[in-house]
Amino acid sequence: MAHQTLLFTLTILNLINFFKNKIMLKNKKSFLILLLITLFGVSSCKKTEYSIGEIKTPTNLTLTTVIQGLDAPNPFGNGTGRVAITATAANAITYKIDFGDGTAPLMVPSGTINYKYGNPGTTEFTITVNAIGTAGVMSTISKKIKVFVNFQIPAAILQSLTNGSSKVWQTDHDAPGHFGVGPNDQFSPIWYSASPNSREACAYDDDITFSKDANDNVKMLIDNKGASFSIGAATSFYGFSGGDGCYAILTGGIRSLIFMNATSNSTPSQSTRIQFTVPGNGIINFGTGGTTYEILSITDTQINLRNIGADGNSWYQKLIKK
Known about the structure:
With about 325 residues, the protein is mainly beta. It has helices at about 1-20, 30-45, 155-160; strands at about 60-65, 80-90, 95-100, 105, 110-115, 120-130, 140-150, 165-170, 180, 190-195, 205-210, 220-225, 230, 245, 255, 260, 275, 285, 290-300, 300-310, 315-320. It folds into 2 domains: about 60-150, Immunoglobulins (Immunoglobulin-like); about 155-320, Lipocalin, CATH 2.40.128. The model is unreliable at about 1-10, about 20-30 and about 35-40 (pLDDT under 50).
């Protein structure tokens, strides 16, 4: 510090002598003003030094995740999509978390956050955490998780389908077009529309129960009284051989349905634009080999469904409240 002060003083004296000898000033006042300006300029050029202290890289980085509602019947969670994420590390100042779903990463100083995924269905995500230490040095850890996100079914459809808890449906065998078929780019049974009570008895006695839980997950249970109807093009899909008829098809017990926006090219005038997939063999009141059903219309007493069968055609079925 003494050495720096000496150099500064010598520099000032040299500058004063330079101005006295080389510049003819008219008066002392002008000389003093110039001297003050010079002193200010020289002193302002002094460099300020900073220190960030010891640079420490975060160590012992861990990442834990808890999927809400995960248990044996719900291995990917209860459908809320909520996951508790906790990252810890020694010497970490903050944490940068990438949730793996395409959203922007977040800075989380505590390392703990409750995050909600929004992709409907069961999806695998890779969570990546950067633990950030002094001077921006980082340690990184990643973890893969699978999360089930329940699609937000429109409230009116959910209420009509389940009555707020559960509701039993049957084939609407008294209605024209309770069975039907048409081309797969249309939304009505152009080729065939069954007249009332014209099909096999096994297609008419099924009890189809739709129920919802507290998180609005919808499940379906079918009692087919031992047999269900299948079109001939789909019998092999259910493990049988033969043409149109009744077969001892297993309905699979309680099945969790997966709802989403319709993937067809239907319009709001033709459909609700909501569809659901039935896990397993996909059968409801009669089998076509299809597993995804678009809800064309629904009221408190009637449902009109469309699916694409194993033959590539669009099949129609109507249900009525029991």
